Amino acid sequence: MSKRILIFFLLLVASCSNSPYQERFIVSGTYLEVISFNQDAAKIVYQETKKLENIFNKYDSNSEVYKLNHNIGREIKVSRELIDVIEIAKKYQQLTDGAFDISKGDLYDFWKKVMQDKKVKNLFDSAKIEKLKKSGGISQVKVDRGSQTVIISKKGINLDLSGIAKGYMVDQAIRELKKQGIDNALVNLGGEVYCLGRNQGKPWRVGIRKPFGNVAKTIEVVDRAVATSGNYEQFYEKNGQIYSHLIDPERGYPVEKKFLSITVIAEKSVEADILATAFFIKGRQLAKEVGEKNPSLTVYFVTEKGIEKIN
Questions:
Q1: What backbone torsions phi and psi does residue 224 show, to the nearest 5 degrees?
Q2: How far apart are the C-alpha atoms of 2 and 270, rounded to whole Å?
Q3: What does pTM read for this prediction?
Q4: pLDDT at residue 62 in the model
Q5: Which of 97, 204, 214, 263 has a CB 3.0–4.6 Å from the CB of 300, allowing a cystine?
């Protein structure tokens, strides 16, 4: 859903008297950073995220998502991980009242090209957008966990996992670290952050900053995920109106600028990943409604006036 090319409103603060191991890699076209006092942590995280990247990358002809998108109407054998992601996506499509929808990849690809091509910068092809908006349909993506197969039963559906994959990858990496007895690490995959355990007995510290400004608030995090969505670095402008690069799958258009950023703190990275985008699209009301159902969430809206805590 054209979620974002990294919007870095997160400033990681690793205040350590004894320096931890810290390594960086490239995964899914963005930086993977791992900080831990266990020297094996980075390797474990990297191997797990690369494995999943090979499943979820819709532009890789060898990936499972690519095969699904190019075999409409055919039952395709897939991994447990892809089934997990599709089922999670279906759940959050309903929870977010349609603000999160992995089935409209053609719509997201259209806007990606518009924003990249200055020649069509002022073109709003309303007829085409209307057609693309109607082309999805997550209910037409059928999952059979028993046979471990998926079938896309409607033409025009193009699965795009960019709004969920990184969060899920981080969660799976954390799961692998725990399985191998590692109880402290900070994992940051393109702005999807998970703070495992503690940093030398103290909580990890994550700073929320205003765009182009100083840290506005520092939060302490233990065994929680943090994700941020925003629009100040990637945006679209037409007739003086600024639009986010985040696309509203229901309206079919970029989101008009309302907030500078939204940060979500949750138990899982996949949840924080999805909700940060959904709240940016739908606004405070959805954040309040979801927060009432899930009191473990913490949500911060960053505006020109400052930071507003929703839950």
A1: -145, 160
A2: 16
A3: 0.91
A4: 95
A5: 263
